[in-house]
Amino acid sequence: MNLIFLGPPGAGKGTQAKALEERFGYRQISTGDILRANVREGSPLGVEAKDYMDRGALVPDELIIRMMEPVLDEPGDVILDGFPRTVAQAEALDDLLRRKNKPAIAVLFDVDKAALTDRLTGRWTHSASGRTYHVRHNPPQTAGVDDVTGEPLIQRPDDQEETIRTRLAVYEDQTSPLIAYYAHPANHRLARVDALAPIDAVTAQLTKLVTGGFGKDGAA
């Protein structure tokens, strides 16, 4: 079963995609990676996309879908994260998946926004290594410094409260129509997982889903 991950920044989609890759052999597909690879390799689609990018224009949905076709021809199930972003993209993706005989379910990473904001604003990073800490859930041994090097930790701009609230507002605006689309009775392809549960518990919810536990109530 192919999966379409929907969820705000910090909901744990990347962590769970990696867990499913390791356990079930999923391939995580990033449309950004596909786009950059085509441009880097100078493929005909990449040349066409680069023309839009050089003009500062958005790459059309139809072109992104054409880039995804050969990826979906490869064996095995995939996890799509970051695409679709609009209902028009979802409709085009559905058409492609039908033609490829690749059924998919959208998985909404349900979160309480206040709790998610708290989770993200408490995150501090060691810039050289990328090691992350949380002031409450995973604090460093000494406040404000990296456990390994003793160097100062920083809070990235993306982890500051004002930025996070803006990102969550943008996500809400973009994703609400997608949630309605996949939850519509004509589609009924939206599963929900409690993304604020412990990591292993979220993985267990997704494992139940991909091994046949998707019920009519949409719960995994």
By DSSP, the count of extended strands is: 7
Q: Pairing-aware structural class of the strands and helices?
A: alpha/beta
CATH architectural type? 3-Layer(aba) Sandwich
Question: What's the helix count?
Answer: 8
Characterization of this structure:
By secondary structure, the protein is an alpha/beta fold. Helices cover 47% and strands 14% of the residues. It has 8 helices and 7 strands. It has helices spanning 13-24, 31-41, 44-54, 61-73, 87-99, 113-121, 161-183, 199-210; strands spanning 2-6, 27-29, 78-81, 104-110, 123-125, 132-134, 190-194. The chain has a 5-stranded parallel β-sheet with strand order 2-3-1-4-7, with helices on both faces. Strands 5-6 form a two-stranded antiparallel sheet. Helix 2 (31-41) packs across helix 3 (44-54). The longest helix is centred in the last third of the chain and has 23 residues, at 161-183. The relative contact order is 0.17. The mean pLDDT is 88.
Topology:
Elements: E1 2-6, H1 13-24, E2 27-29, H2 31-41, H3 44-54, H4 61-73, E3 78-81, H5 87-99, E4 104-110, H6 113-121, E5 123-125, E6 132-134, H7 161-183, E7 190-194, H8 199-210
Parallel strand pairs: 1-3, 1-4, 2-3, 4-7
Antiparallel strand pairs: 5-6
Summarize the structure in short.
The chain is an alpha/beta fold and 220 residues long. It has eight helices and seven strands, in the order E-H-E-H-H-H-E-H-E-H-E-E-H-E-H.
